[in-house]
């Protein structure tokens, strides 16, 4: 990517500035911050032991363990581990990844804009400082989603290049998004990749097959995570999760303002973001950027849940929070603003109000922890990572923490555990009630085996790598060259 030192410095400087409030705050453990810590702490420790893909976290739930990374994409936690292995504490490793993801969002947005936009730096900086982007950090602590937002411009650029017959970037970007945050990857597939591909190829529909190539390759590359996550789904407790109003997308509709479940502060913050985004959308709708303005408006309407029943459709209900569409609206707004040919005063009138809620989130962010820093060493974990079963539901699972005190040295059941007693493999099963790993024998040794799903996923990902390498070699003179037209 061609970028001047001055523009690169501006992006890095803004990333640091947006992270400064976290550097000056006490350790944040509200919302997902405590989960980030519990998972990153163990992921880094397992990598340090030579476990290159840590799927089972042994310290979770007070030492009963948790199969987190059989189900959760690992890429953001590999980034945390890089800082942790370099010597940073777990918490500051997490903050460092947030800072890097801010910068990555700026650089990827600049790459997306630099060939066609009038003001690529403005668009990049605006995308970094958009209100939902900032809220995702300080309000939600959503490390994986926040990191995946930085990949949105690369996914769009990958679609653009695929329509021209260049597939490498799109495959890598799409795989990276899947391996970072599945709900955002799903939303990007439906609401960004598909409509943008149709927009680019509507005159020559056969070119749509070109876009299918990097999408298919991206799925293949991420199969090492995806296949176990899908095939081993029956071995974790998501049934109780889907019963909660908090995770029902319809509960977050602005039509259902008083519905139980959503945190009132988060509901208000998200609604404020939606309200403030209306202004730049209106500006875009009355300029040459009306198409991007219309796209952002559609994303805003859908994110607000204003179409009854939409988020109950198959697959869509799994994204949990409709407001996860807001990064796509912000991406369209930042892209449109970067392309505007208007006096700077008018552009500033559209942009400055958008940054007001961002400034508020930076100045006043919540720190009402579900887990205190004193509780973190016990590595409390989320209840959906427990084995299936009826039990009290709390976030984190207090039931599991109490169970760990009664059964020290035990582990939760998972089908990849293998037990050998006096040199002979014995059968394992979940114990009734506790769902702890049960077996009979003496002088027993436990080890995690590699499931068939893991082996098949690894084979498919390896096949995807070989195919991608072949394509990269065949297109080595063109895949990194600039796009000349939009």
Indicate the percent of residues in helices.
Answer: 55-70%
Give a short account of the largest sheet.
Answer: 3 strands, antiparallel
Structural class: mainly alpha
The residue-averaged pLDDT reads 93
Distance between the termini: 17 Å
Order of helices and strands: HHHHHHHHHHHHHHHHHHHHEEEEEH
Strand content: under 5%
Radius of gyration from the CA trace?
23 Å
Strand order of the largest sheet: 2-1-5
**Beta strand count:** 5
Low-confidence stretches: none
Individual helix count: 21
**In one word, what is the shape?**
globular
In short:
By secondary structure, the chain is mostly helical. The protein has helices at 5-24, 33-48, 60-63, 68-71, 75-85, 90-113, 120-129, 131-138, 143-149, 152-163, 168-178, 182-201, 208-221, 223-231, 239-243, 264-285, 290-303, 326-339, 344-363, 398-406, 452-474, and strands at residues 417-421, 424-426, 429-430, 437-438, 444-448.
Question: What can you see in these coordinates?
Answer:
Helix 6 runs parallel beside helix 9, helix 8 runs parallel beside helix 19 and helix 16 packs parallel to helix 18. With 486 residues, the protein is mainly α. The relative contact order is 0.14. The strands form 2 sheets. A 3-stranded antiparallel sheet has the order 2-1-5, with no helix packed on it. The chain has a domain of 60 residues. A hairpin with a 6-residue loop joins strand 3 and strand 4. The model has no long low-confidence stretch (mean pLDDT 93). The protein has 21 helices and 5 strands.
